Amino acid sequence: MASLPCNARIQLTDTLEQMQQGALMRKVKSKSWKKQRYFKLQDDCMTIWYQSKRTGKTESAFSISDVETVREGHQSEVLQSLAEEFPPERCFTIVFYGRRGNLDLIAGSAEEAQCWVQGLRQLIEVATSMDQRERIDQWIRDWFQKADKNKDGRMNFKEVQRLLKMMNVDMNEDHALRLFQAADKSESGTLEGEEFVLFYKALTEREEVLSLFQAFSEDGKKLTLLELVDFLRQEQLEDEGTEELAMELIDKYEPSETARARHALSADGFLMYLCSPEGSIFNPRHQVLWQDMTQPLCHYFISSSHNTYLIEDQIRGQSSIEGYIRALKRGCRCLEVDCWDGPNGEPMVYHGHTFTSKIPFREVVSTLGKYAFQASDYPVILSLENHCSMEQQEVLAQQLRDILGEQLLTATVDGRVPTQLPSPEELKHKILLKGKKIGRLEDVLDGPGDEAPDVSDDDNGAEAEEERRRMKKDKESLAQALSDCVVYCKSVSFRGFQEARSHSRPSEISSLAEAKARKLIRDAGNDFVRHNAWQLTRIYPSGMRTDSSNYSPQEMWNAGCQIVALNFQTAGTEMDLCDGLFSQNGRCGYVLKPPFMRDEGTLFNPGEPSTREGPGPVTLTIQVISGQQLPKVANSKDGAIIDPLVRVEIHGVPADQAHQETKYIENNGFNPRWDETLQFQLHVPELALVRFVVEDYDKTSRNDFVGQFTLAFANIKPGYRHIHLLSKDGTSIPPSSLFVHIRIAETPGPEQD
């Protein structure tokens, strides 16, 4: 075989052959920036490169595994702005994972556009359904493509040395040559196809996994079914249905048919299992929907975004529908929209008194209607910042009702005054508007509720008077039609916990800036936790954060705040924590709070961990064993090889906040070995998130970020586990991983007399 062929799963259709011949299309960045580029699918059917028509040099390439989806027609703002000039059947948009910008393209004809849309969709389907073994083969193909400089389908020793540097391997020349010659079976002085696969396998041999395998295997060559069961019970702490699990793992991951038939696992199969979802640190049972979804809304943490329409900074950034699509696809369930009067009676969305661009409100609403329930069935809360005149407020209400129809919740679920908030389950596929409302919910429904809050006679008159005054003020500034769209999320000013307890309703919600929330947590932590057990609270970033930076959501979650709004467009630790918390429970955007935060009489105060009811603290012991194929640092000078270290951070109540790191390993991003043990004590494990960060050590300046993975402590699986690292953007960077051993033990308390 002269070169690594197309993926075996891919049927080479006419469409794909046509894509391999290439096509001239227009790449569009704005109404005025439309340039011809030559696009071509590579022979491996998994890479597309394009070059400038003028210079003929390859401008860029991307892998099919980077592509999330393909949209047909005018489905981006740029293509919409060119609707007059180019018909929708010639236009399509390639959407990438993470925060990478979309690629808007205009084909020469409708047939050509169809060819690329259908072909790309076919390839995306293959890329997303590849199993572990196929993925490894694909990585090998990708490396071969990158290193085969003269594209002759074979690789000489010089090209192999270049490849090693690209792969973050600093290997002495003699050792590299030995591996090269051992793989060059044909003794041609070059590696072709299968020979390159042998070379890659020799390069990626894992001694630490082999010695673990041999510790449980009597003959050192295979694990029998019973030996595998021993390993699963003793090390992985799998206690239920272990024999069935062992059989399943052999069937799924053992490459040799003979071994499979004998119910045995080879060293290759063992490694495949450890690198698979079952061998991951993230408990697979918690990745699916596993929590009770029938509790009141205020008993959940809710994935929430701030100024969702911005995809850059807060002052001159671009407002875009893309902001809403990206947030919803990530499972975000509370979106923000700032509305201002626009021309021709059309309300617009943008950040007021700044230079951010504007989008029509109706476009935001239709995007919401289309994407709201693609990633999750559970309710979406639309937080409305309303700066419109009465006339345009009528338009807002009209557009919400017309475009969303049945999806918009306009009445209570049972037609009665709620004594508590409904559950995510009861509100499935519903969009709730959060905003100001004229009067109270019971004024709209028949008569007062069963349990209107008690008000003594002395208070009664004064309170009724205050209520009338407020209603009159609201009626002057709020259109009735818009007020009627607000049911369970009536925005009210926060006037203290006592005031809220005696006069507020479960269907009312206060919004607090981060500094105000921090002060309340400091001064009245327990009151705040109790308040959040029966009413929703929304927290938003300080107005000073014009660069769209974020505050730590953890301290707000510690107090039970549900709607902790972050700038989703800004990567960093804060968004890692958000993605980490919400990556569980089917990524549905709702995570149930621990029991001691759902009880209105709770004694819990995040500042005093001993107030938590439940078993004592736990000890988390993490042995950081090794790293695999860590990526290079983006924009590193001359492609330098990294000096990686691992930092483990605990984010939780103040008493649990901690971090420890390993030493750094010089010049090895390919297979560094640390073998270091880190230990943490957690007083409130139910609220803790664990963040694993890999950095490139630099003694003269700040370390560079390499990759990270964050998850809730509750989702950790003990034993020997791989941690599959994510990029700054939260997208996966296969095959980069860490190999660790995890133990969780209850910390022995003081001796009882």
TrEMBL record:
Its cofactor is Ca(2+). The keyword Glycoprotein applies. It is found in: Cytoplasm; Endoplasmic reticulum; Membrane; Nucleus. GO terms for cellular component: endoplasmic reticulum; nucleus; plasma membrane. It comes from the Eukaryota. Ca(2+) 5 binds at residues 696-698. Ca(2+) 4 binds at residues 641, 643, 667. This is Phosphoinositide phospholipase C. GO terms for biological process: intracellular signal transduction; lipid catabolic process. It is a peripheral membrane protein. Glycans are attached at residue 186. Binds 3 Ca(2+) ions per subunit. Two of the Ca(2+) ions are bound to the C2 domain. One of its GO terms (molecular function) is calcium ion binding. Its EC number is 3.1.4.11. Residues 443-464 are annotated as: Disordered. Residues 482-598 form the PI-PLC Y-box domain. Residues 135-170, 171-206 form the EF-hand domain.
